[in-house]
Design goal:
26% helix, elongated, 8-stranded parallel β-barrel, 11 helices, TIM Barrel, alpha/beta, Lyase, Ornithine Decarboxylase, Chain A, domain 1, binds pyridoxal-5'-phosphate
Length: 369
Amino acid sequence: MPRPILATVHTEALRHNLGQVRRQALDARVWAVVKANAYGHGIERVYEGLRGADGFALIDLAEAERVRALGWRGPVLLLEGVFDARDLELCSRLDLWHTVHCDEQIDMLAAHKTLKPQRVFLKMNSGMNRLGFTPERFGSAWTRLNALTQVDEISLMTHFSDADGARGIAHQLEVFERATRDIPGERSIANSAATLRHADATRGDWVRPGIVLYGSAPDFPVHDAAHWQLQPTMTLSTQLIGVQTLKAGDTIGYGSNFTAEGPLTIGVAAVGYADGYPRHCTTGTPVLVNGVRTRMVGRVSMDMITVDLTNIPDAKFGTEVTLWGRSPKTGVLLSIDEVAQAAGTVGYELMCAVAPRVPFAAQGPADDR
Ligand SMILES: *Cc1c(COP(=O)(O)O)cnc(C)c1O
């Protein structure tokens, strides 16, 4: 019998969240961002739920091959473009669109022998200072690309640093619009946070949502997933494999960093940091036991955590424990964003970090409750 831990991907929730994006960005086409193996969900497992998107955007060429292997004939975009001249051959063979963010990538294209011109997204650094041409150099990069026979249509893109926060996007949007005023081509500017929070960003031709598709609020804790009407797409669940009854003064786990103030019943759940449950979670991190919200107590071990059973008197060996997502038996929700906050991180990281030893199940419409 394998350990009871399980990650479940919810197909209907993916479809629902994509629908929320469409409602928000009525006129834009939607890139479903599936980089990092679909934010840890598995590209093959999210495909059914996200195939209603207009295209798939990702980073790794091997992941682009997997999207094509699933039978997707529509657009696929490499968000960081090619890493090596040979990647352009794969772009030709698989008809991948690719970002161009630096001179080296233009050099590779200029030297590339292809029968079919390639569609590219020229990226501007409008203030994030990661990838892209500065506004001053953007026009000349476009002119150079436009002169290449290897290049077909050129679209324009940029990326926001503060779409989820107080600084917002206005300063970058202004830079982008000023520098692209006289340049033709489709625009792609909005990530999840910009799509939900900034209507002026969804005027672009393509939006690029990632995290919202996976049911996590991009601007938590200002807003939560319920506010944006998002549904969790991943559940991490397990079971209790032990129960202990403590008396006042007893301690729990490594380092004895939790001491019972009075009589306390705790459960031991089969999940630990080797499963991707963050070791930074401390006493107080929310957990569902049989659908009842309680708290983790003590430290996260490699294979186990301990939880307070005060309000769940009937909990015993085999009782369901939900770390995030939707409690399989009761349907009660626990947002991954809350757990991430308790660990000092974001939902993105938790999804991406589910360990290879955790088995996954895809849950189709028929099993969804
Ligand atoms: C990852 C990524 C996105 C999606 O970001 P979310 O915050 O998950 O919506 C959009 N655009 C680019 C260029 C990205 O790298």
